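INFO worker-7 received task bundle
INFO bundle size: 2
INFO processing item 0
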Amino acid sequence: MDRLPRIVVGIDGSPSSQAALRWAVRYAHLVGGRVEAVSAWEVPGMASWSAPAVDADFDEGQAEQGLVAEVRAVLGENGGSLVRERLVRGNAADVLVDSAQGAEMLVVGGRGHGRFRRALLGSVSQQVAQHAPCPVTIIRPDVPVE
């Protein structure tokens, strides 16, 4: 059984999630851990009745390839080979909280939405910070992680 500390990082293509990925890899290196990059996808309309429950344009295989390509673009081939990518269907916050079961750390980007929008929608980073089963690190895109 693999006993290396597992660092879960949420990836969504945003600059803050890319900064979170870089931070997670550095942290994993410090603690002798491994990184699991998790990206969530959800069929429109699953959370509400206002949209059709089918997305004919979504291709899961293409999305998985896109996730791998994004990790490689952010970290390079060598860095990317140290990360396990997972694409999971579901609400992003729920997927990340579930994926963090047994993890050493959950790392997410904080996009810095305005207070009003955050109050209406809630942010993934806020939700995981409140519900994750492990420590959470939120990386803002405007804070250097070098």
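INFO item 0 finished
INFO processing item 1
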Amino acid sequence: MDEVRMTTPWPNALVRWVPAVMIVGGVVFDLVTPNPYTGDTMLAGACVLAGAIQSARIAILTCLVSLAGVLALTIHSGIIRQGAGTAEIINVVLSGVIGLAVNQALTRSGRRLATVRDVAESAQRALLPDPPPPDRPARHRRPVRGRAERGADRR
């Protein structure tokens, strides 16, 4: 089955890199701030955002990198066996699960939309006459209400 690609109104190159920038920003923030302040929120946000804008493979990769980052940071700060360290890890894991669920839901709705679009195009082709060839001018053809994208109704 073909994978449905998600599109956004923003430039794709910019949007594609936002989760990676959030991971790097979260790690840097965690390293340069005192111990009670952590960057796990940015790591968790990167998981959810990747689930919303990336393909499933890239979203999974982003979640794994975020998890590796939070594990490394909790080991580095020495809080891995404390409640705060466990909470940071659980936060990123749950955010990853949410991001992947969002990705799955968006992919499913995109497939449904593609199916509906295909049915609508088939119905339109069956009901409307074919447009004239480009070298022959159309006579007596008027769009239904300005939004007809294929063919036109004769009056």
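INFO item 1 finished
INFO post-check item 1: The chain has a mean pLDDT of 81.
INFO post-check item 1: Helices lie at 12-32, 40-53, 56-77, 83-127.
INFO worker-7 idle
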